[in-house]
């Protein structure tokens, strides 16, 4: 068991972010109030604190550039939604660049995390560690996080500058081969050095050897599929083969201590509302508390009750993905709270599930489904909703429950307010974990790679209440869609399988309601972009022309 001082709060982590604000030394005299790169990174405690600042860059300030949300909206499983004041999401949905700096925070936060972790790695050898296991864990986390940020950039933008030192620089875009060579090398370093301790809630929210093995498989499948490759040439000149990736993912399955929890629905917060939600009560659901740990989760973003709409970046303490994907303006639909209505679900997703698949109702709110008990109170066209389908993301939606006020009166509040006394504000009281890697994903990637394919594939199906099937690629594609809906993976799966244009354009002509008027849905997937986003224009200008805009933009 690795013991690390975990008293650092998210607020403390933000204080550390000043280390990455600039590469210059402002004063030659001793700084008595702030830490400095000259005197910091000297022991395991300081490295741990600095890594917390790296994790802090994972979420975005608002929901508009949340990576999971962006990937969901661009996939075939979600439409744009929002209202007349939300052209950003409607342009995102239709592969349009409607503002100059679209996706600036997605790009900028990734490089913020990279700069911070580069600073840690550059100073790591100057630190003193009393425990070799702690040293290896922290070094592995640093390399994992750098690989994770670059994988995010590579999947969204295709090519991006590869920066490995904490120095201001204007690098041209690295090729996909170069990016994935570094991504795989960093994940390999993390796998090689991090201790093989079985899952423990002590490491909840932090990278481990097992999450590195799982993310390595994700990176390998995306790169080899998208670019028609059979292996990855690492930055050190060695070659990563499929057989090595298969060995690692098999190790993760057999030795990590991670497993599927018994009921898929207990992963998601609606299962907490088992006194206010007939569906949860009738199915004996019981939420597996994020704070206590969940053996199915290998990597996630943790949020806190410190979220505030104060203009100082603290919105990102709360899970803004939940606010943005909630049913637009729908107040009083216990146990579901309201939000901005981005990313309404495609009816095709609802209709694609097999009969008896509990993940259908476990993943999607169908407002006309009697099981939900909201059809009589649901208001179509609320706040002039766009692309309304009657289907909504159930995994990431606010959950409200009946609770008592200080005087003993029954009132309706967010579940996390009920649990932790978080601020009484629907814009910030959503603090559920954002799942970045679950064990079911590991099992399905293993099946796709050919690792005990029948066993691993049907293990996921059995948990969903389904019978066995042949683990063919087509069946794996369907299983991934149904198991991992709304988790930000579908768009990248479509890209690597070469299915994006066909699957996304299939939605053209679907009847949706915009401002409560039946309207044919229109989307125009643009193959000339190769599925990648535009680089923010301000970044191109600041580079003095070194950066070149992505094709098609």
From TrEMBL:
Location(s), subcellular: Cell outer membrane
Listed name of the protein: RagB/SusD family nutrient uptake outer membrane protein
Domain SusD-like N-terminal: 91-221
Highest taxon in the source lineage: Bacteria
Transmembrane segments: none
InterPro entries attached to this UniProt entry: SusD-like_N, SusD_RagB_dom, TPR-like_helical_dom_sf
Keywords annotated in UniProt: Cell outer membrane, Membrane, Signal
Family per record: Belongs to the SusD family.
Pfam families: SusD-like_3 (PF14322), SusD_RagB (PF07980)
RagB/SusD domain mapped to chain residues: 384-553
